[in-house]
Each structure stands twice: as structure tokens, then as C-alpha cells.
């Protein structure tokens, strides 16, 4: 089995960085490595020993790199507002560094740019959010709109992914975003293992199709329902009639339907269909795959069945790359 590629991840730590903005995603990536992920963590910044929001200084921080590998990720935690004065010079240096990596108006040339909380202001000042969907902490939405007037700022989102640029509202939502990115890079099962180890049962999202339901509906402690959810997530392309789910749970089909409603807040069929759609959604961008082939990969009987389920579960039309113009 081919191992996934190693992803160099550079955390950019400025004076006043919010400790949880940094530690939450970093721990998620560290735990992912214990389950087969291949994330290589680096800690960089304008200062060699930046002081965190809690007053502790982090030693051994490397200088901002002159260049990044093509597949590298950049994660910038937010900054404590009370320490803005101490952060000003470092913020200007970081904005200039971002502009050096990617001139304004150009596509981000690396694997992923990830901003957490107020770090979106830095990316916005560098021109990297122009014409992109993005978000930040709800108290900073207006400021981000002023700094980046060409950005499409969404004020009611926990996190937003727009191509190779991702942003989150900050604090604990950095963990939500990290889990989503882990799921996309390493698969939903690995992300689910990370979420379990971190005891993150509630999968928060903005109810938009781009966010993975593999970690949704898990904020409960019922073992039979979890067994079914695990089984479906492990084989989303398999045919899962209610009887087969009930066999996994060791209960009757009628009782399983009641358990799902009570503990997961969704029917077994709706859960299964949402997992199916999450499975095939990345395939929709493949121009050389027909919709019939994609439907087969997701366990649908036909492209017509796929369209029917999509219309039922999603609020936006099913579109292929050729249909976006």
C-alpha cells in the first residue's frame, strides 16, 4: 500500500499568538501521525522566542523560511488583541513574507494556507484573500472587510475552505478546521480516529456541502449507533439497507431507526446518504470521470440515483467543472 506523502507544516508564530489557536491544530496533526498521517511540523516566526497570549514564551522558533516546498502547509494562529502593540512589527514582517511567497492576485503556490482567528487579517493585508471566500472571529469581520475589501467575508461560518486557502473563526474552531483538512489529506477514518482521541464528538460546521459529514452526528455516546456509523464510514460505497445496519448494531431495524433519531438526530438512511455524497464529492472535480463512474464509486445504482440523493440532501445544485461557467 502506497504511503501518503509527507506534508511539511509551518506554524507561523508571532508575539501574542493565541496558545489554543496553535496547540489545538498542532496536537490534531501530531495525533494524526500516530494513526498513519505524515505531517512534519515546523515552528517559525519573525521572533526566535515569541511570547504567547498566556505569557509563556516558546523557545526554538525558526526564522521565516525563504521558500516552501510545493506541498507545504502554512498555518498562522491568531493574535491576542491586548498584545497588538508588541505584535505590530512582527505582523508587518509576516505580511511582507506572505507577499514574497505569493504576490497579491496570484494563486497560492503551495499546498495550503490556513489562517486561524485574527490571522485572516494578515492574509487579507497581503492580498491573499482577494476574491476568495473566507472568515474570521465574529468580532473582526468588519475589520477584515475593511482590510480586504475584495474578499468575500462570511460572518456566520465556523470555517471556510476556498481552494488552497482556508480560514477559521478561531480558538476551538481551529481544531474543527484541522480535522477537516486531515480528513481531506488522509481520509475520513483517520480524521475520525484523531477526533476520538481528542474527545471531539461534536462536529461543528456551517451546514455547507464542503464540510465533511464523516465526523458529524457523533456527539453521542451510544455504542450501537457508533458501530453502525463506523461501519458505514469504513465502507461508504457498500450497499447499506437498514437490515444490514441493524445487524451491525445487533438490534432490530425499527429499534435502530429509533436509536439514530434519539442519539444522532438523523435517520440511518439520511446518515448513509450523506456519507455517500461526501465520498464522491472530491471525484466531481475530475473532468475525465463520467457521472456514471462517480456514482458507481459512491455505491449509487446510477447517475440518476446520485442526482436524486443529491437533490434530497443538499441545498445547492450538483455541478461538474464544465458546468461552473
UniProtKB/TrEMBL annotation:
- Keyword Transcription regulation among UniProt keywords: yes
Q: Which residues cross the membrane?
A: none
Q: Which Pfam families match?
A: DJ-1_PfpI, HTH_18
The alphabetical list of record keywords is:
Transcription, Transcription regulation
Query: What InterPro entries does this protein map onto?
Result: Class_I_gatase-like, DJ-1/PfpI, Homeodomain-like_sf, HTH_AraC, INH-QAR
What is the official name of this protein in its record? Helix-turn-helix domain-containing protein
Record-annotated HTH araC/xylS-type domain positions: 226-312
Amino acid at each position: 500500500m502506497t504511503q501518503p506523502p509527507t506534508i511539511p507544516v509551518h506554524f507561523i508564530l508571532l508575539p501574542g499568538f493565541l496558545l489554543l489557536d496553535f496547540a489545538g491544530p498542532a496536537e490534531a496533526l501530531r495525533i494524526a501521525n500516530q494513526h498513519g498521517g505524515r505531517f512534519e511540523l515546523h515552528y517559525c516566526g519573525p521572533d526566535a522566542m515569541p511570547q504567547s497570549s498566556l505569557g509563556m514564551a516558546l523557545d526554538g522558533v525558526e526564522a521565516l523560511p525563504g521558500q516552501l516546498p510545493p506541498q507545504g502547509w502554512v498555518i498562522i494562529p491568531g493574535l491576542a488583541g491586548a498584545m497588538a502593540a508588541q505584535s505590530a512589527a512582527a505582523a508587518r514582517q509576516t505580511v511582507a513574507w506572505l507577499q514574497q511567497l505569493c504576490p497579491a492576485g496570484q494563486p497560492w503556490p503551495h499546498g495550503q494556507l490556513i489562517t486561524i482567528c485574527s490571522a485572516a487579517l494578515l492574509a487579507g493585508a497581503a492580498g491573499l484573500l482577494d476574491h476568495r471566500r473566507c472568515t474570521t472571529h465574529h468580532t473582526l469581520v468588519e475589520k477584515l472587510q475593511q482590510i480586504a475589501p475584495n474578499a468575500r467575508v462570511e460572518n456566520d461560518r465556523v470555517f471556510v475552505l476556498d481552494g488552497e486557502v482556508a480560514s477559521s473563526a478561531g480558538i476551538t474552531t481551529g481544531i474543527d478546521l484541522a480535522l477537516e483538512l486531515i480528513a481531506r489529506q488522509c481520509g475520513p477514518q483517520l480524521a475520525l480516529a484523531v477526533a476520538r482521541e481528542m474527545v471531539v464528538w461534536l462536529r461543528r460546521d456551517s451546514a455547507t456541502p464542503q464540510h465533511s459529514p464523516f465526523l458529524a452526528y457523533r456527539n453521542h455516546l451510544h455504542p450501537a449507533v457508533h458501530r453502525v456509523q463506523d461501519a458505514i464510514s469504513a465502507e461508504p460505497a457498500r450497499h447499506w439497507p437498514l437490515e444490514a445496519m441493524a445487524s451491525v448494531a445487533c438490534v432490530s431495524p425499527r429499534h435502530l431507526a429509533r436509536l439514530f433519531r434519539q442519539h444522532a438526530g438523523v435517520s440511518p438512511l439520511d446518515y448513509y446518504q450523506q456519507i455517500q455524497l461526501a465520498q464522491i464529492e472530491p471525484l466531481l472535480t475530475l473532468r475525465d470521470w463520467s457521472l456514471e463512474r462517480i456514482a458507481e464509486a459512491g455505491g449509487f445504482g446510477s447517475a440518476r440515483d446520485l442526482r436524486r440523493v443529491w437533490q434530497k440532501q443538499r441545498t445547492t445544485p450538483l455541478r461538474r467543472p464544465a458546468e461552473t461557467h
